């Protein structure tokens, strides 16, 4: 029995060095995310922007959600919170008070996501969950400032409820993504990628190269669907674990590289890449240490000697090539063992809850989660939905025109820096968006259910335009959407002009 259990637990045995790389990757992406968000402090997070607090509370607020960023409508307060989040992320990257900084980073990430849900995308859910599970993972045990104050680990591998949760979470992302793709474009006709690349709002140059080849796109559509559906199973094969993990990592690195070159999805591909290092097997980490650690140590020695005269410490464990890598429970006091048992129990319960939540998103059965149980998911933001291009790809496409009328009666387009008005399609529609947050906002702007948000965007753009004395004064601004529906066989409907909102000074 013990031998069987030892075999079954192999898929969940992780290298603590790989978990350290996971920590660094996640912290780095959090910093990039903050940098992108910080370019729109006033627009997205203040009362002077597109979603004032009273509008958020009236239309987009869940009473179980919490947000420190809603404590003030001033962009200056938001800037302070962003600096705190960046400081915590840097500390997490360096491994300084790792568990505390993981909690702080998670709290502030949840807070900023709750402040403006109109600009959120699927990758935000994954980034949030990586930090959440990181609270319970030993990802600060090595390659961290904290490790200098600890004795060397007796084993470089670990297995716990948290490692199970991390592996299962990665599988859920792709399983649910595939199961939610129920449209015929994914399962029968294979035209999903054709319609995705027909969306000018997200089309990148790499997508333009693929677009003329319908059979290639059809093959890639089915390859994507079945890869997402079947690939996660390899994470649970208890034999040749390192080989299967290598297949999983390599396939997804190439998959998300392809997405990043063809579709404008913001940080989605980076977040997915950042989720993978924790799966690196011991053999891979041994190779990386042999190649990278001596170079890093030599660089660190030069820098620290130059600044303080401090010497880089000797390795805290024997060469990993010679360490016997096996899951090991260190000798610990009874209180520590009790704490570990409680932690594993809590993580196990949360994992079952999350699996139940995901099961509910892809099925309609008697086992569906009732509303009275959802408060826990909203409170800790472990709610998740992996409906990327699901159940089918949008057919409605188009581009925005901010049609301004000057005091002299001239028509200009604020979306093109005040150029003379034209209804012709831009050469690159995707270039109209400063970043993916604005692209996602514009997508939500179209929905009738979000009509409440339209005047705030219109008035914000009118105010920003008027603050520049070099701009001509406007007497009216209309937000126009030139709607163009994608049809089969490289056809589209004639663009139609839709006035979404109008405002005046």
UniProtKB/TrEMBL annotation:
Membrane-traversing stretches: 12-32, 75-96, 126-144, 156-180, 192-211, 223-241, 247-271
InterPro entries on file: HTTM-like (IPR011020), Sporulation_signal_mat (IPR052964)
SMART domains to which the protein is assigned, alphabetical: HTTM (SM00752)
Keywords in alphabetical order: Membrane, Transmembrane, Transmembrane helix
Record keyword Cytoplasm present: no
Residue ranges annotated for the HTTM-like domain, each copy included: 11-284
One term under GO cellular component: endomembrane system
Topological type in the membrane: Multi-pass membrane protein
Compartments where located: Endomembrane system
Main location: membrane
Protein name, UniProt field: HTTM-like domain-containing protein
